[in-house]
Amino acid sequence: MSGGEKPIQEPQPGFCSATCVDRASLQHEIQKAEPKTSDFLITCNLPKRFEHPHWFNGYGCQTNKEHPLYRTSASEYGWYPPGYYSVPSVFFPAGQKFTNHLSAAGMYRNYSLNTGMDPVGYH
Predict the structure, then answer these.
(1) Cys staple from 59: which of 37, 76, 81, 123, with CB 3.0 to 4.6 Å?
(2) Which residues lie across from 90 on neighbouring strands?
(3) CA separation for the pair 96, 91 (Å, rounded)
(4) Per-residue CA distances from 70 to 29, 63, 81 (Å)
(5) CA torsion sign, 68 to 72 to 75 to 76?
(6) Contact 81, 57 (CB under 8 A)
(7) What pTM was computed for the model?
(8) DSSP secondary structure string, 21-57?
(9) What is the DSSP string of 49-107?
(10) pLDDT tens across 34-67, in order?
Protein backbone atom coordinates (compact mmCIF):
# COMPACT_ATOMS: atom_id res chain seq x y z
CA MET A 1 0.00 0.00 0.00
CA SER A 2 1.37 3.41 -0.95
CA GLY A 3 1.24 6.43 1.34
CA GLY A 4 -2.10 8.02 0.22
CA GLU A 5 -4.33 4.96 -0.13
CA LYS A 6 -7.14 4.19 2.32
CA PRO A 7 -7.05 0.72 3.86
CA ILE A 8 -9.92 -1.56 2.82
CA GLN A 9 -12.25 -2.02 5.78
CA GLU A 10 -13.79 -5.31 6.67
CA PRO A 11 -17.58 -5.04 7.06
CA GLN A 12 -18.76 -4.87 10.64
CA PRO A 13 -21.52 -7.26 11.70
CA GLY A 14 -24.88 -6.09 10.31
CA PHE A 15 -23.38 -4.19 7.34
CA CYS A 16 -23.44 -6.29 4.17
CA SER A 17 -23.34 -3.62 1.46
CA ALA A 18 -20.10 -2.82 -0.35
CA THR A 19 -20.63 0.90 0.31
CA CYS A 20 -21.79 0.64 3.93
CA VAL A 21 -19.07 -1.11 5.90
CA ASP A 22 -19.49 0.86 9.11
CA ARG A 23 -22.00 3.16 10.82
CA ALA A 24 -20.40 6.39 9.50
CA SER A 25 -20.59 5.29 5.85
CA LEU A 26 -24.17 4.07 6.41
CA GLN A 27 -25.18 7.49 7.76
CA HIS A 28 -23.46 9.13 4.77
CA GLU A 29 -25.44 6.93 2.32
CA ILE A 30 -28.73 7.67 4.11
CA GLN A 31 -28.15 11.43 3.97
CA LYS A 32 -27.36 11.49 0.25
CA ALA A 33 -29.88 13.42 -1.84
CA GLU A 34 -32.06 11.34 -4.20
CA PRO A 35 -31.03 11.77 -7.84
CA LYS A 36 -33.27 13.89 -10.06
CA THR A 37 -34.00 13.71 -13.78
CA SER A 38 -32.04 16.94 -14.28
CA ASP A 39 -28.95 15.16 -12.91
CA PHE A 40 -29.04 12.86 -15.96
CA LEU A 41 -30.66 14.95 -18.72
CA ILE A 42 -30.99 18.57 -19.76
CA THR A 43 -34.51 19.51 -18.66
CA CYS A 44 -36.80 22.50 -19.03
CA ASN A 45 -39.67 23.49 -16.74
CA LEU A 46 -40.29 20.01 -15.26
CA PRO A 47 -42.80 19.58 -12.44
CA LYS A 48 -41.58 17.78 -9.33
CA ARG A 49 -43.31 14.51 -10.27
CA PHE A 50 -41.10 14.30 -13.39
CA GLU A 51 -37.97 15.47 -11.56
CA HIS A 52 -38.43 12.63 -9.06
CA PRO A 53 -39.84 9.64 -10.98
CA HIS A 54 -39.04 7.31 -8.06
CA TRP A 55 -42.05 8.92 -6.31
CA PHE A 56 -44.44 7.16 -8.74
CA ASN A 57 -46.04 4.03 -7.30
CA GLY A 58 -48.93 1.68 -7.97
CA TYR A 59 -47.59 0.11 -11.16
CA GLY A 60 -48.08 -3.56 -12.03
CA CYS A 61 -44.64 -4.75 -10.99
CA GLN A 62 -45.13 -3.08 -7.60
CA THR A 63 -48.66 -4.26 -6.79
CA ASN A 64 -49.70 -7.17 -9.00
CA LYS A 65 -49.28 -10.58 -7.39
CA GLU A 66 -50.96 -12.67 -10.11
CA HIS A 67 -49.18 -15.58 -11.74
CA PRO A 68 -47.02 -14.44 -14.70
CA LEU A 69 -48.53 -17.15 -16.93
CA TYR A 70 -51.88 -15.33 -16.92
CA ARG A 71 -50.52 -11.88 -17.75
CA THR A 72 -51.55 -10.51 -21.13
CA SER A 73 -49.35 -8.64 -23.55
CA ALA A 74 -51.53 -5.55 -23.02
CA SER A 75 -50.48 -5.47 -19.37
CA GLU A 76 -46.88 -4.80 -20.46
CA TYR A 77 -47.85 -1.14 -20.97
CA GLY A 78 -47.64 0.50 -17.58
CA TRP A 79 -46.15 -2.56 -15.91
CA TYR A 80 -42.98 -0.71 -14.89
CA PRO A 81 -42.88 2.75 -13.30
CA PRO A 82 -41.18 5.56 -15.24
CA GLY A 83 -37.45 5.93 -14.87
CA TYR A 84 -35.15 8.90 -15.27
CA TYR A 85 -34.81 8.32 -19.02
CA SER A 86 -38.49 7.60 -19.75
CA VAL A 87 -40.09 10.72 -18.26
CA PRO A 88 -40.35 13.82 -20.47
CA SER A 89 -37.41 16.19 -20.32
CA VAL A 90 -39.50 19.22 -21.37
CA PHE A 91 -42.89 20.25 -20.02
CA PHE A 92 -45.30 22.73 -21.60
CA PRO A 93 -48.46 22.90 -19.49
CA ALA A 94 -51.75 23.78 -21.15
CA GLY A 95 -53.28 27.14 -20.31
CA GLN A 96 -56.29 27.33 -18.00
CA LYS A 97 -58.23 29.90 -20.04
CA PHE A 98 -60.97 27.49 -21.19
CA THR A 99 -61.37 25.88 -17.76
CA ASN A 100 -61.56 29.25 -16.02
CA HIS A 101 -64.23 30.44 -18.47
CA LEU A 102 -66.21 27.21 -18.08
CA SER A 103 -66.15 27.42 -14.29
CA ALA A 104 -67.40 31.02 -14.40
CA ALA A 105 -70.11 30.49 -17.06
CA GLY A 106 -71.21 26.94 -16.23
CA MET A 107 -71.52 23.86 -18.43
CA TYR A 108 -73.31 24.12 -21.76
CA ARG A 109 -76.91 22.95 -21.65
CA ASN A 110 -78.90 21.98 -24.71
CA TYR A 111 -82.34 23.64 -24.60
CA SER A 112 -83.47 22.49 -28.06
CA LEU A 113 -86.70 20.63 -28.74
CA ASN A 114 -86.70 16.95 -27.76
CA THR A 115 -88.11 14.99 -30.73
CA GLY A 116 -86.91 11.53 -29.76
CA MET A 117 -89.37 8.79 -28.81
CA ASP A 118 -89.40 7.49 -25.31
CA PRO A 119 -88.30 3.86 -24.98
CA VAL A 120 -91.09 1.30 -24.58
CA GLY A 121 -91.72 0.32 -20.99
CA TYR A 122 -90.15 3.50 -19.64
CA HIS A 123 -92.67 5.54 -17.63
Answers:
(1) 81
(2) 44
(3) 15
(4) 40, 15, 21
(5) positive
(6) yes
(7) 0.45
(8) SSHHHHHHHHTSPPP-GGGTS--BS--HHHH-GGG--
(9) HHH-GGG----HHHH--S-GGG--GGGGTTSS---TTTS-SB--PPPSHHHHHHHHH--
(10) 888 888 888 888 888 888 887 877 777 777 777 8
